[in-house]
Specification:
256 residues, alpha/beta, YbaK protein, 9-stranded mixed β-sheet, two-stranded antiparallel sheet, 8 helices, 11 strands, 32% helix
Length: 256
């Protein structure tokens, strides 16, 4: 954690501090030496993971003009459609909250919006991904101040539902490995007895460059036409020897 500083002389910070004292919360607000207006700045200052910063995202519920506060993990993006589905009733919609609305509706400035101590209680949702961590840090009424809590403590302090409110991450597509070694592993499972064929299904014969001494080979399995034609006549030992030769040919193709 970076060097701490005295708490700023701020009515907003005092409200948060008083709320935490009255709630019996063990961790009072602390002040950072530098402002932490973004989750990344706060994480850097505290020496914690980005996800441990319980960032505050404020929306405006129209037409009632009530603040909707989403407390989300710093490494996540809030999904406005998910929030709207959880909050909005018939005829209502979510809108962006500007700095003036945030100040008027919560008593906090952007960058210091705390999940507790607002002048008017907003509708609050807690990001379920915060549950990954033993401890998180939330804003305490000022860009310089934060307080520590466990996810369970934050839930108890806010009485807010824990919900799926962030953008779903698409799984990283699996890269298909079509090397001879990978093909051997797959084929061996399908053909546990004997020596499997390296065939990829449809032969694509690669024409050697002019002057090359290499014969024409399949670009998929690296066999020549005679080797493909005689595969069924080879013994298992001969097939294994050819597999070894094919691996050498494959390596030579990609070593340059």
């Amino acid at each position: 954690m970076s060097e701490l500083a005295p708490l700023p002389d701020s009515e907003s910070v005092r409200r948060v501090q008083q709320f935490l004292i009255q709630s019996g919360h063990p961790n009072p607000p602390v002040a950072l030496a530098e402002a932490a207006r973004t989750a990344q700045q706060a994480a850097d200052a505290l020496g914690v993971e980005l996800g441990q910063i319980a960032k505050s995202i404020v929306f405006k519920l129209k037409p009632v003009d009530r603040a909707v506060l989403v407390i989300a993990a710093g490494d996540q993006r809030v999904d406005e459609k998910k929030v709207a589905a959880l909050i909005c009733e018939t005829g209502q919609k979510l809108g962006r909250a500007d700095a003036g609305f945030v100040r008027e509706a919560t008593g906090f400035a952007i960058g210091g919006v705390s999940p507790v101590g607002a002048t008017r209680r907003p509708l609050i949702l807690l990001d379920e991904t915060l549950q990954r961590f033993d401890a998180v840090w939330a804003a305490a009424g000022h860009p310089h101040t934060v307080f520590q809590a466990t996810p369970a403590q934050l839930h108890a302090l806010t009485h807010a539902p824990i919900a799926n409110v962030v953008v779903d991450h698409s799984p990283t597509p699996e890269v298909f490995d079509d090397s001879l070694d990978a093909r051997w592993a797959r084929a061996s499972k399908l053909q546990p007895h004997g020596v499997p064929s390296p065939c990829v299904g449809v032969c694509t014969m690669a024409t050697p460059t002019r002057g090359s001494q290499l014969p024409s080979m399949c670009a998929g399995c690296w066999r020549t036409l005679p080797e493909i034609a005689k595969w069924g006549q080879f013994s298992d030992d001969e097939k294994r020897q050819l597999w070894a030769e094919l691996r050498r040919r494959e390596a030579a193709q990609f070593s340059a």
